[in-house]
Amino acid sequence: MHPWHLLVFALASWVNREQQLAIEYLKTENSILLEKVGKKRILLNDDERRRLAVKGKQLDRKLLSELGAIFTPDTILRWHRELIARKWDYTSNNPRVGRPRIRTEIVELILRFAKENPTWGADRIQGALSNVGFHITDTTVRNVLQANGIEPAPDRPASMSWQTFLKAHWEAIFAVDFTTVEVWKKTGLTTFYVMVVMELKSRKVEIAGITTNPNKQWVTQVARNLTGDDGFLEHASHLILDRDTSFLPLRVQDVLIG
Asked: The pTM is what?
């Protein structure tokens, strides 16, 4: 063993010893504070709870308990869950006033659906728009069609039950959805979106991609990868997905399944 190895080992041991002494001191201090406070409730503001939640999440429940912290591990971890939940709270006290105008993108989709599906009526087109995240009335669809010189066709009746459909296409039905993972980075709490695809027949699962920004370009590229040669969806005839607008490229781009 080289002399400098001994030096590094001694230095590491000293640092570890210093850290352990600091931890023991803080545990003793916390114990005394708990004795002084007793059952009195300590009120913290949002920033103080956030700071403790961020630091506490980095420790496991067992270590938090051993530290003898003033706040229980359950409380600290609950603050962290609330912090994440608050990130996803998009409610607003300032609702929009007035009737919004029809977006150009919606008008283009209405016209496209009508031209590519001559048997679709206003109700069917309205349902298709709802599936891709655009919620408008069938009256609006009729107005758009009439304004563009297209007469709505009668709605096409269903030709088979859902059960019959599944049996007929079971060999080539897939499903796709997003799940999220919250990760603490130096810049703060970061959400990673994981696109997961499953073959219903075999229950085989494929991680299609992971990103912090599942925008239209990213989803389109992932869809092309899935449907290309040797792609997981190469032989898929039908794809089940929810109404999340993130999936729009899978529905209305050139990478449509089926």
From this structure: 0.48
